[in-house]
Amino acid sequence: MSQIFHRSTNVLARVTIFGAVFFLAFLLWLMDELTKSPYNTQAYTPREQPVQFSHKHHVGDDGIDCRYCHTSVEKSAFAGIPPTKTCMNCHSQLFADSPYLEPVRESWRTGKPIEWVRVHDLPDFAYFNHAIHVNKGVGCSTCHGRVDLMPLTFQVASLQMQWCLECHREPERFLRPKDQIFNMEWEPPANQLELGRQLSEQYKTPSKAVLTSCSTCHR
Amino acid sequence: MSQIVQLQNNLGKKPEAANPDNTASPQSPSSGLDRIREELGALTGKKYWRSLEELADRDEFQKLVEREFPENASEWNDPAGRRKFLKLMGASLALAGLAGCTRQPTERIAPYVRQPEQITPGRPLYFATAMSMGGSAIGLLVESHEGRPTKIEGNGLHPAARVADDIIRSHNLDGEARGATDIFSQAAILSLYDPDRTQTLTYLGDINTWAGFLAEANRIRRALLLAQGGGQQNQPGQSQGQANQPAQQAGIADVEPATGHLAILTESVSSPTLAYQITGLMRDIPGTRWYMHEPAVGDAAREGARMAMGRPVSAVYRFDQADIVLSLDSDFLSCGPASVRYSADFASRRRLDQQNAQTVRLYTVESSVTNTGAAADHRLSLKPSEIEAFARALAAKVGVAVGQATASEAVSRHQQFLNVLAEDLMAHRGRCVVVPGDCQPPQVHALSHALNQALGAAGATVTYIEPIEGGVGDNAVGTLAQLAQAIDAGQVYALLILGGNPVYTAPADLNFAERMRNIKHRIHLSLHTDETSEISHWNLPEAHFLESWSDAVAFDGTASIIQPLIAPIYSGKTAHEVLSAFTDNPERSSYDTVREYWMRRFAGGGAAPANPARIAQPNQPGGQASAAGQLGNQQTGPGQPFGSSQPATTGAAAVPAAAPTPTPEFEQFWRRALHDGVIPNTAAQAATAAPSPASLQAPTQPAPGGELEIIFRPDPTIYDGRFANNGWLQELPKPITTLTWDNVAMMSPATAARLGIGKQVNGVATNSEGYTGGVFSVDLVELEYKGRRVTAPAWIQPGHPDDCVTVTLGYGRRVAGRVGTGNGYNAYLLRTSDAPWFGTGLTLRKTGEAYPLAVVQQHHLLDDKEIGERDLLRSATLAEYQKNPTLGHQAPHAPGHEGGHPSLYPEWEYPGYAWGMAIDLNACTGCSACVVACVAENNTPVVGKDQVMRGREMQWLRIDSYFKGDLNNPETYFQPLPCMHCEQAPCEVVCPVAATVHSAEGLNDMVYNRCVGTRYCSNNCPYKVRRFNFLLYQDFYTASLKMLRNPDVSVRSRGVMEKCTYCVQRIQEGKIQAELRDERVRDKEIVTACAQACPTKAIVFGDINDESSEVYKMKHNPRNYALLDVLNTKPRTTYMGAVRNPNPKLEKA
Question: Which residues of B touch A218 (CB under 8 A)?
Fold first, then answer.
């Protein structure tokens, strides 16, 4: 009785078995990459906003400090989105007739808030606190990137847990002196690790075990 | 390990040994009962039981103990068909897929247009306000997140909420006394956002407008004024002139003269402004009458004071000064206006630290089963009608002239108790106090006043103040029965009901619903559409107190301004605004009204302002008319003066009628009053009052009747029915019975056995036999009293006096909302106006039907059998404690503490903080405020009666009741049980997805977003503190409930395990605030929700690495012990055993 399968089928079977392993591994890798990719995280994707607000102009060109608008960043979990009043402080005089600013003037007239689209949007089960980061040596640009160079704001980090843990595991890699927190152009010096350890001691940064405990961010 | 094995060997057989005749015993009830009694009496060691069912059948009970959840909790046996199953599966697959693969949806941020000055986005603000209930107020601090109130705490500056010796050291309340709360004020926030609140103003069932109501009010006003005729036209005065002329001119055109008067029906009024407004309106529209109906607060205290001292003064007790307390049917620890303060004061005398040894001894003589009785060192249960005879005999013994003490069977039965009690009281002259209960007749109150006088307590442990309730002092107020008479006489033209639900709460004999239909104009202001709304013409949505401007006085007379936390969600109106509608300034806001009252009072140096008189009304014959007439002559407004010694008794003409203008000093006073939540120097003046013994001669004649007595009590959780639609309170296990969602007819085991109620299991009358079958069902009985009948589930309660049945009010609501409608039975249907609290002549008949109850006492049972008599609860007498301060047990379990049991697991190290909790069982009164506070803080869902019956209740903190000793009068202990946060947590090692892990500070973190719902953790938890979302219990869709949620806590969905987190959101916030200051967290800076709400300081939370912290000290107190210590889980939550202080002369041999 002749064989049903040709001998070459054996090779095919081996290739298929090993191939399946590689294929599954490839699929897993692909999923992982997709999850981390800006397609999923929406990093580097400028959002359509009701007003085409440019941080590049306001921060980079005009040199307005972050805290002029984000007033509660040093006191509260939430950095604060400026009320229409803050916009009108200047724009009742400057570009007072610009059609781009009509939504702002409309808000001022009607008392209805401008509905900005959230750019940095953490999941609801993660509780991030701006105040403690800003007061303990984490600068704005460490997480938000060079906002002063962004015409339309986008996020530069994945905002995934792995990214958070990069710093929570080794804060000394990112800490900077307190007077440099709002400096957009700050670059880590060559001896960052050494400086970071010093600062970490000075800031009384909690231990890595505390920083990576689940309840530090999830409640 | 070896220890455990040894214990098993030693103790494995013990329960059988203890029940030698378990199987052989003849099943006759009496002999079995005797056996159990003998057994209980014979036990020399500690022996606690949790329910009658446990006593009756240990083996059956043990099956229940061994289950992770009660039967039916984890089984999918909902009546769901195939279609529903497919629908659910389809939906969850689709959702799972969607959630896994899509990006986050776009979220928008709407900043302010003009940001208010005080607001820092993301940080809550706290505002002081007050909640008024039953005629007095408790001061509150309400947390507000960007304008939405989310959590209520007590205001430490307020006398009714202050926990005197507990200081908060948080960043925003540093150095202030902590304020505690009761269950009602904790749950009030849910009532605010209740989606079933009346949302629109209706007239005859159709939607109408406030302007429409104002027009109607104006017509009624003009009709009333027209009916008063020409008498007023000659009266001087500006306001009436302005009001009358157009009124009368217009009256000719479109208004018929009114036939009768305007009747204003209120609950007890604690607002001085409201009382001022009502009395003002009574002058403005002559003939207007004020009636008051407060179903759950009797007038016995007032009448008793009048009887003893000739004046309705109020008594204020100083439990922190008393060594001996006697409660005569008073539940002062959980009921009444000052229960929080009284609990705090009482517990401060029970504290057993080194400096402060326990000296208080509480005797309770009571007719039902209450928390005060549970806290007692000696408890005597008597029929309610026997308490007066007991008090009289006691008074005679102490030396009060009470005429001849009538021979009473109850007294002779308890002669020894009486003798010892009298001796103890007399040995502590000036350091003892007698507290009469609201449910007792005035005679008992009068006797108590006389007793306090004779014992030197008056002026020391009890002080008398002028009455605080508006309108009470000057006799202006009629009762509901008088209103009914007036309606019958055709005297009521319009009825204005300001809050309350009289159609439901009125005594049955008044037939109020029928009578109310005879009134021409019926106006009802209420939070909910209820039974009264059904037969009212105008239904006005009421503003919740968190939406209102008003004011209120506390039990000692201290006034507070009630300020709104949020604009009325459903355009609700306050009683002030509704009353203004009937004046010549109809659109005046309650803010203006309240401010004007305080401006007048401030200008008068604190004296209560008098109303500008409209007309001096001559006394008329007839009860009602004379009451109103007296007021017209008396000229004094309500409320109490702050500084001056005399209330303003000047003629009304002397007070300027024009509205006063605010001075800078007033503005300062006003802002301070709003900020502090109390108005300084407004506490009522001490009244000099001495009881005259002459009043005590006549005892109440016992009403002839049958052998059974009926006792009416407000429900422990939903009160008089006003909280019927509050899911938190419905699902809160009632103290002692641990019943939820229902009320029962409560009776003693002996009475039940006599009437053949309950199941006889091994000779014990138990409530339910088939409790392991999932459903706990009891007998339905028909109660017949004075010709009226209701059907109620029967409940056998050890400790209840024989031959009486307690029924609780507030249930059986026909129209309450989606939560409250249809639960329980309506006990008001049996209540009559002549005997509102108890009476004889009840007959009880078994219907033969069964009724399922949601009782949680047998859910989540701790196992004390397998390894023998583990002492879950420790208690001792003071003498035993002094002999052996550890109560015979082990040393504490602080981290790094030497000793304890060896463990295979490595120890954790905590170089930073180590959070821990200590619970003092000696202080806990079982009030359950902690449970509601936990629910409010942690977004815990309500699951409903059906789910509770299956053991799926979600509260993170439960209070287990333990009973000890005599079946007829057991000692009762409470044990609050949150997550233990074990060092060697059994839950952590079994989670396959690391959703529950140990934090670096010793917390058992629960990571909801990792949890896949295997429930292994819960299976492995010996304390049974984990709660699983078997179904989607959270309401994600009701808009108003979204505003309720605490933004700092995740809202959990279906399929997720959850449990107590030690309020980790508060820990993190406290740590961040401390780190911002570059400091370590201070002791008391972080307070968990349960600890903050606790009136008695029984729950203490803190850092056990900090040797100066209170929790550290408590954990190193010799009384400290860990629950199920032999399991070596090393819990972070530990307990301090209860110590009672019984009189050695009364101790059993």
Answer: 1005, 1007-1009, 1050
The C-alpha angle with vertex B295 and arms to B546 and B512, in degrees rounded to 5, equals: 110
**What 3-state DSSP class applies to A108?**
helix
Cβ contact B384:B709 at 8 Å = yes
Q: Give residue B72's pLDDT.
A: 63
Contact between chains at B104 and A42 (C-beta distance less than 8 A): yes
Taking the mean position of all CA atoms in its chain, how far away is CA B864? Answer: 32
Mean pLDDT, range B800-811, rounded to an integer: 92
C-alpha–C-alpha distance, residues B280 and B655, integer Å = 13
The per-residue pLDDT for range B661-709, each reduced to its tens digit, is 888 888 999 999 999 899 988 887 777 767 766 666 666 666 556 688 9
**CA pair distance B837, B440, nearest whole angstrom:** 7
Q: Are B350 and B362 in contact (CB under 8 A)?
A: no
Q: Are B460 and B428 in contact (CB under 8 A)?
A: no
The conformation of residue B1004, written as its DSSP 8-state character, comes to E
d(CA B583, CA B578) in angstroms, rounded, equals 10
DSSP string, B559-583: EEEE--SS--TT--B-HHHHHHTTS
Instruction: Select from A68, A84, A215 the residue whose CB has the most chain B CBs within 10 Å, as the one to mutate to test that interface.
Output: A215
Range with top average pLDDT, B21-30, B189-198, B869-878 = B189-198
Cβ neighbors of A218 (< 8 A, separation 6 or more) are A125, A126, A127, B1005, B1007, B1008, B1009, B1050
Q: Do B120 and A76 touch (CB under 8 A)?
A: yes
Q: Report the pLDDT value the prediction gives residue B458, as an integer from 0 to 100.
A: 84
Going from the C-alpha of B485 to that of each of B715, B752, B829, B849, the distances in angstroms are 29, 40, 20, 40
* CB-nearest partner of B122 from A72, A82, A213: A72
Residues of B with CB under 8 A from a CB of A: 103-104, 106-115, 120-123, 911-912, 997, 999-1001, 1003, 1005, 1007-1009, 1048-1051, 1061, 1064-1065, 1067-1068, 1072, 1075-1076, 1078
> What is the least distance, in Å, from the CA of B111 to any CA of chain A?
5
Predicted structure pTM score: 0.87
Q: Smallest CA–CA separation between B947 and chain A, in Å?
A: 26
Per cent of chain B over pLDDT 70 is 78
Read off the pLDDT band of B470 (50, 70, 90): low
The ipTM of this complex is: 0.91
pLDDT by residue (tens digit) across B771-781?
555 678 888 99
Mutation pick from B98, B102, B103, B115 vs chain A, by most beta carbons of A within 10 Å, is: B115
Contact (CB, 8 A) for B711 and B747: no
Contacts of B1050 in chain A (CB under 8 A): 124-125, 218-219
User: Across residues B209-229, what is the average pLDDT?
Assistant: 88
Q: Which residue of A has its CA nearest to B1005?
A: A215
Q: Does the beta-carbon distance from A75 to B1008 stay under 8 Å? A: no
* Closest CA–CA distance from residue A86 to any residue of chain B (Å): 8
Contact B108 A117 (CB under 8 A): yes
**Is A131's CB within 8 Å of B1076's CB?**
yes
Sheet holding B1120-1121, edge to edge: B1099-1103, B915-920, B1133-1136, B1120-1121
pLDDT band at B653; cut points 50, 70, 90: very low
Which residue from B minimizes the CA distance to A42? B103
Q: Report which secondary-structure segment, H or E, holds B961.
A: strand B958-964
A183, A146 Cβ separation under 8 angstroms: no
- Contact criterion met (CB below 8 Å) for A215 and B1064: yes
Closest CA to B807 of B384, B503, B368: B368
